C-alpha cells in the first residue's frame, strides 16, 4: 500500500498542485516492520520502469528488534533470489533458534539508499561493537 499511495492518492491538494505525487518520491521506512519496502520497490516497480528515481531512507529506532526468521521463510516473501544475500544472517544467539536465518532489518539497511538513526549518539552506539546489535 505504501508503494501505491503516492501514485494513486491525492495527497498534496493546494492551489498550486492537485493530484498524486507521482514517482519522484522518497519513501521513509522505519525499523524492521517496513524493511521489505526497498526490496519490493526494486523488484516490483523499478524493474518495470516505475519509480525509477524514487529513493528509500531507512530509519533505525531500535536495533534490538531486527525481524529474524527461519531461512526457509525467504520463499514466502516472493522476492527474486538476487535479494537472498541481503537477508542472509547467521545468528549466534539462541533467540529462539541459533543458526542461519533471514534478517529483515539487514536487508532494509543494505537495499535502502540512505540509513538514518534517531540521533547521532545512537548511530555511534550501533557501530561501537557487535554487542550493540550490528553483528
From TrEMBL:
Residues 20-130 form the Starch synthase catalytic domain. InterPro entries: Starch_synth_cat_dom. Gene3D superfamilies: Glycogen Phosphorylase B. GO terms for biological process: starch biosynthetic process. One of its GO terms (molecular function) is glycosyltransferase activity. It comes from the Eukaryota. Keywords: Glycosyltransferase, Starch biosynthesis, Transferase. Pfam families: Glyco_transf_5. Pathway: Glycan biosynthesis; starch biosynthesis. SUPFAM superfamilies: UDP-Glycosyltransferase/glycogen phosphorylase. This is Granule-bound starch synthase. It comes from Heuchera micrantha var. micrantha.
Amino acid at each position: 500500500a505504501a508503494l501505491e499511495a503516492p501514485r494513486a492518492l491525492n495527497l498534496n491538494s493546494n492551489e498550486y498542485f492537485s493530484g498524486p505525487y507521482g514517482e519522484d518520491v522518497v519513501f521513509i521506512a522505519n525499523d524492521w516492520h517496513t524493511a521489505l519496502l526497498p526490496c519490493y520497490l526494486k523488484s516490483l516497480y523499478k524493474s518495470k520502469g516505475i519509480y525509477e528515481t524514487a529513493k528509500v531512507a531507512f530509519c533505525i529506532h531500535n536495533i534490538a528488534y531486527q525481524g529474524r526468521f527461519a531461512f526457509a521463510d525467504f520463499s514466502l516473501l516472493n522476492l527474486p533470489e538476487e535479494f537472498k544475500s541481503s537477508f542472509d544472517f547467521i545468528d549466534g544467539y539462541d533467540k529462539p533458534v541459533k543458526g542461519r536465518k533471514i534478517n529483515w532489518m539487514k536487508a532494509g539497511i543494505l537495499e535502502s539508499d540512505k540509513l538514518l538513526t534517531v540521533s547521532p549518539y545512537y548511530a555511534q552506539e550501533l557501530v561501537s561493537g557487535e554487542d550493540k546489535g550490528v553483528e
